[in-house]
Structures are given as C-alpha cells and as structure tokens.
Amino acid sequence: MTSSTTRPSRRIIATAVALAAGGAVALTGTGTASAAAKSPSVESAPVAKGLYQSAYSERNHVLWATTAVGRPPVTSSALLKLDPETLEVEATYTPPVTDAATGAVEAVYGVAVDDEHDTVWTTNTRDNSVAVYSQKTGAHLATFPNVAHAREIVVDPVHNTAWASGFGDGTLAAFDTRTLKEKKRVTVEGSSPAGLAVNNITGTVYAADLNNDRIIAVSPYARTPRLIPTGDGPISVSLSRTGLTAYTADQAAGTLSEVDLLTGKVTRTVATGAGALSVATDTRSGRVVVANRTSATVTVVDPWKGDVVKTVAVGANPNHVEIADGIAYVTEKSAAGPGGEDVVHRVTVGR
C-alpha cells in the first residue's frame, strides 16, 4: 500500500469541454455533448485516468473515488481521497499487489462508505472479491474472495452490513462491518445483479437484475427473495426518501422507472437519455438524478410530477452518480483532461 498526500494545483472548470487551456477538448467515446445546453450549475475537474465510481463520507467530508486502468493483469489502480469542494486529490492509496511477477494489483471499481466504522468498501471486479480500507489511514484491512465479478457495494450502517453484487453468478453477499467477516449469501439462479440500494430501516437490499428486467429484493424477514418487474435493462437502483419507491436506470431503454415497492408495479417511466447507467436520489429534495452514458448527459427528474427538471450536458461516457448535500458527483470516463485524465463533475440538483 502506498499513499500520497500531495495536493496538485487544480482549478475547477465551468464546463467539461474546457479542460485544456486555450480551447475545447475533443471528447472520446460514444457520447456527445450536443444533447443539452451547458449549465452554470456544473463544475468540473480532471482527476485521474480510469475513474469508475465515487462515494461521499459525511463523517470526514471526503469524496472517495476508484480508478482502474486496462485489462488483467491490471497494474494501475487506486483508491482516491478527494476534496468534495475543489475535487483536488488529497491522497492516493494503491491496492495490494496480487502477482509480483506481473505487478498486478487488487484493482478497485465499485465503492461505498461506512461512516459508522470509518471504513471504505470496494469491489475488486477483476479479482472476484471485495475489500475494505481504513478511511483514516487508507490501510487495507481485509479482502473477501469468491464474489464472482463483484460489481457494486452498498453499506447498511444500522444493521452493520455491507452488501456486494456478484454479477457473475447471481449472488448477493453480505459482510459484517464490525467483525469484517462474511455472514450471508443469497443466490438467485440465472440472475445478473448489478446496482444496489439498501433500506437502512428494514434492512432490505435491492439489486437491479440487468438481464431479467427486474429488481431482486432480499429482506432479513423473508425466506426467499422477492422479484419485482421494472424497465428494460435495469443496471442501477436507488430508493426514495421513504423507502417505499425504487428507481431504476434502464440501460437498454434509456429511461428511469419508478416502482411502487408495496404493489410491485412500475408506476411511471421517464425518458432520460440513451444508455442510462447510474441513478441516485437526493434525500433533501427528493429529486432523482440519472447519468446517461451514451447521450453524455445527466438528467434531473422530479419524481412527484414525473417531469425532467433539467438535462445537463457533460463529457463523454458519464459512468456513475453520487449525491450529497444537494450536489451530484458524476464520474466520467472521457479522458478529456489535459493529460488524458477522466473527469468528475459537481452538478447542482436544486430544490
């Protein structure tokens, strides 16, 4: 494990296409920034190559982000500690080496924060594992194997549980955040769980089942998982403030689906943009934000009216959205930075 506490000089830039001095940068990938007007409510900064996801720590006022570059053996990967206001990198932590001969590391992709125990959890997709690190020091604390193509992770601080999705074998794996031991596995044959959300009150975890157009709900009080239909190609899921409604980003359809969890029915579908990839709910306003990878946009939806409040153009390939204090942090895999870095955007969600 190596760390760096240097703070490179960065300037938050008003739009994603002005990341290089003297003019616009041609964005790579399939996205296009022409789908919506640039907005003064967006601030952007180049961060690092290979950005994947981010997670906000209220306890430490830190935005944690993961990076991984290339295919196995992955030798370049890091857990980054960012200032959520300036998006400056405050520290860089390198995952453990898994193969001394190739220099491969336990590359990090998905990320979630556990402020109750001051830790940060990651999915190590290429290594089929999950890991946990100290927020205070960045030290690697444990790795849990046999989570096939571990994609995302979410923390339930009330029930001291971290849930990871095993996209490769249809498994949801639960880990005790106090003892750092595995405590439960639930497998739904033929499923492909991707994005996760958890209800901290009930302890129920919800997984977007990408290939079966449904949500998998695992309750601590039910013997078997509940399967709830949703939109076409759900890849990410979030919950309303009450926990009674789920929202899925439907990648195939380019939509946001609103699902009543009591009746198990889709109550509304909102078009957001091609390649809807990640969804998050703002607990302050109740608004829902979707990152649309193919259309290179971020869409803010008023769930009560079913209206699109605004659609903001970002750079190519927005990959993940995290919301804290009315700000949506969007990681983007555009390589649009001056040195080919990927970008993080701060998007104001609004009231």
List the helices and strands and how they pair.
Elements: E1 3-4, E2 42-48, E3 51-57, E4 62-69, E5 76-82, E6 89-93, E7 97-99, E8 104-105, E9 110-114, E10 119-124, E11 129-134, E12 140-144, E13 150-156, E14 161-166, E15 171-176, E16 181-187, E17 193-198, E18 205-209, E19 214-218, E20 226-229, E21 234-239, E22 245-250, E23 255-260, E24 265-271, E25 276-281, E26 288-292, E27 297-302, E28 307-313, E29 318-324, E30 327-332, E31 342-348
State the main characteristics.
single chain; 351 residues; mainly beta; five-stranded antiparallel beta sheet; four-stranded antiparallel beta sheet; disordered N terminus
What does this protein structure show overall?
It contains no helices and 31 strands. By secondary structure, it is mainly β. Strands 1-6-5-4-3 form a five-stranded antiparallel beta sheet, with no helix packed on it. It is globular and about 50 Å long. The model is unreliable at 1-38 (pLDDT under 50).
